[in-house]
Protein 1
Amino acid sequence: MSEAVCERIFGALGVDTSNYTSSAAVMFSDRTCRNEKKLLPVPQGNLGLRQSDAVFAHVKQFAEVFSRLEISGEDIRA
């Protein structure tokens, strides 16, 4: 494996769904980090979301959040 590829291997992946925000962060083996987040959509005039609606919104949003991290399958090692 080339040195350039080794530098991009994940050290950790974190996911958070608190405070009406879908968040994800990655830390690579060279200790560089990236994070992205997106607020949940709450209709104007509403005080919040039902738990089931919030879970569904997080699931829908994570595809975008992960894509904005600009990682690919080549970056991931299990």
Protein 2
Amino acid sequence: MSNYKIEEVDFSSLDTNTHISIITAEFNAEYTQALTQINEDFLKEKWFYNIDIYQVPGALEIPGLSHKILKNKKTDLIL
């Protein structure tokens, strides 16, 4: 069995005005919605509030939406 170390990362040097987009597939919503909520809560805990959440039908649509968002320069980071 592998040994994993969880280390706290210091986010204080990052710009909290960073525009973050979270893309979630609707397929397996029980899991994907929970992961989206966990990520959103974590980001807000670290003072990142400029968050957009997008939903697509399945995982195959995620790259297309990512490309569209980046092409329109509407975000700094995609999860």
Protein 3
Amino acid sequence: MSKKAYGRLPLEARVDEDGFAVSSATIITNQRLTCVAVKIAGGQVQVRDTKDPHKTTLTFSSEEWQSFVTGVKNDEFNS
């Protein structure tokens, strides 16, 4: 995936019933649409797949999330 695929999320995102910002932006990976919802609260970042009916949530510290974002920007996850 090229860096361009990460793009910017739209300025307007809706917020779901649990307080997660859900963007209409998607990334196509291996012919699959991928969309995540993100919630930032209490120094933690919570992320979940919008298609998961069980709303499984991954929680990261601010430092962990910043490391991930830096890795994406530096193209560290492409093989």
Protein 4
Amino acid sequence: MVTGEVLEAGHAVQVAERLEQDNPDWLVLYGSYTREFVAFPVYPDAPDNCYCSAKDPAALDGHIRETERRTGHVRLMPG
């Protein structure tokens, strides 16, 4: 039997994948135990031990932007 939590977790994984597509300089995962989205910067000048986490994907996106601003990371837009 498939529960609502499993379906919800499956959808959350899809949301994490979308966040990663929108933020190519970050590895984005969904923790099914913590039910949090976690992002790790993968750009070369990323600070050590840096990550962002949030239960709400929109909040995670904001944390990512703030971390990039704080560390001086310049996001290149595809053109």
